[in-house]
Specification:
This protein is mostly helical. The chain is 56% helix and 0% strand. α4 runs antiparallel to α5 and α10 packs across α12.
Amino acid sequence: MDGTFIIGKWNDLVSVYMKEKEATIRRTNLSYQVLFPQTLERQNVRRALIPFEDKTISALKEDGFSDSALFFEHFGKVWKFVNVKRPLSNYILLDANRSVVTSDNDNRFAHASLLANGCLSARNSIRHHCLTKDTADAFHFSINSIRCISKRLLDDGMTYVLLGEFQNDRLEAEFGRIRQMSGGSYYIALEQIKSLISLLHLELFKKLGITLMKNEMSNCCNNPLTESEKNLIDELITSEIQFTHEIETSIILYMWIYFFPRKFRQFECCRS
């Protein structure tokens, strides 16, 4: 963190586990599934976090694995920081790392950025004793994005930010839908996201039977819509088109989202 590399060894965790796996009272929650997970077991978040728990770090220090303890401790602090979901978590759990964000100059942002930059400088595409390039890039991008979003929310008048709400199940599920609608790609352009969200809104309007949409501004500039533009919107929304299959409806909505905004440019929306 201060210009030197911190080496965390997975074998040190294995050593701690092997030392006490038969003991009646154990210091950690380490298990065989945690240390040697199968492909599906790697998706279990609770198990994945066990190496970063305070009790695991204490056991590493107690057994003389100070470098590994420091390595896991740094990542554990970042996880606590970005997983705050309640305003008073730091008082309830007696942990300052779990307090809410009230400033983008929070020292924890500096710590997380320093760690992310370290991962970025140590990335290796062949994954030899270090993070893969994609993992390091994703971690670095996520930390910087969280800081930018927090600053925007606080500048807009928010008293505090709960970073844990950025990764709640509903938000992740919604992004999962958008990702699948974009061909399963993790690299989605902003224009794609805006168009797909509009598509989901249209599908919701159809399910609710909404036949009127108010829109008083042009899609490509700040000029008011003309009567001909308003009439075209009303005709497209109120048209009673019968489809024999749900797929046909989705195709029409998808085409409407991409082509209708471009159609606006042919109207008088760029009037001088």
